[in-house]
Amino acid sequence: MDLEQYRQSLISRLxxxxxxxxxxxxxxxxxxxxxxxxxxxxxxxxxSVDPQKIKSLEAIPFLPIQFFKSHRIQSxxxxxxxxxxxxxxxxxTTSRHLLRDPGFYRRNARSGFEHFYGPVREYCILALxxxxxxxxxxxxxxxxxxxxxxxxxxxxxxxxxxxxxxxEMLAKCKKNxxxxxxxxxxxxxxxxxEQHPMGLSGVIVMETGGMKGRRREITREELHAILKEAFQxxxxxxxxxxxxxxxxxxxLGGGLFHPSPTMRVLIREPNDPLALQEAGKTGVLxxxxxxxxxxxSFIATDDLGRxxxxxxFEILGRLDAxxxxxCNLLVADVS
Length: 335
Known about the structure:
Elements: H1 3-14, H2 22-36, H3 38-46, E1 63-64, H4 67-70, E2 82-85, E3 96-99, H5 102-117, E4 124-128, H6 139-150, E5 157-159, H7 163-175, E6 180-184, H8 186-195, E7 203-207, H9 220-231, E8 237-240, E9 249-251, E10 258-259, E11 263-269, E12 272-276, E13 283-289, E14 298-307, E15 313-318, H10 321-327
Parallel strand pairs: 1-14, 4-5, 4-6, 6-7, 7-8
Antiparallel strand pairs: 2-3, 8-9, 9-10, 11-12, 11-13, 13-14, 14-15
Helix pairs in contact: 2-3, 5-6, 8-9
């Protein structure tokens, strides 16, 4: 079997998740990337890790997420079809995630959503994503656009400065009992709640994060309390994703996230990047994203949180700059 045939076999197995045994597939993808990803191979060499001796998810070394800012991360040799990029203020170095197959990303994002919510086509998708819509390279906008295209409802669409139109559409959907998903960044949903409080029973309101630099920082719990009161809802849903991931996690309320079938979350100790934290204790998220087959599936993030035995996890904040430096001393050694 040549390399491309082997890659296609891995993609086929990804499509069979969650029935496919996750750990066995993850270990096979680890060995694939340790051989065909030059950056990751060098990283493992610096750690004196023999990939053939890795027998469990807990033993896999995770690549610091900062490398997405400094390197073009690829497993194998291929020409990118698209490049996702993170948001950032002027002068900041942003993350870049090269995409080999946009169709694969669309199918995986769709499958992850449908694992929890059912067919995308059955929802009217109303996307309130200012700031993200106003720049290029947003993976969130790319995903939302696919959801909108898949929707059976022609009313689905993006809303930027046409808030009055969004309010009118929400009222129509509620009146006609149309299954509706209002997908919005945190600051925009907060502004909508302040300017247009309305009863939205039956509507799924899903926040995607995204407050930094737009409004004062508040906790997710505080934001959800504001939204629940303004929209007369018992719960606010959440989506967890990032430029560096091709999979998402979802919370159906209460801030407890459940990963898509292609994703798992482990927690590492804040002061030791190679040691894992016990379930239920606060640490830093290590994310396995098997959909990142063509880049890197094992990412040490800067997000603080807790993970639980059932696979769910919480997001509690982010490491500060000094913590990031302390957790990624090896970054300087990898060229």
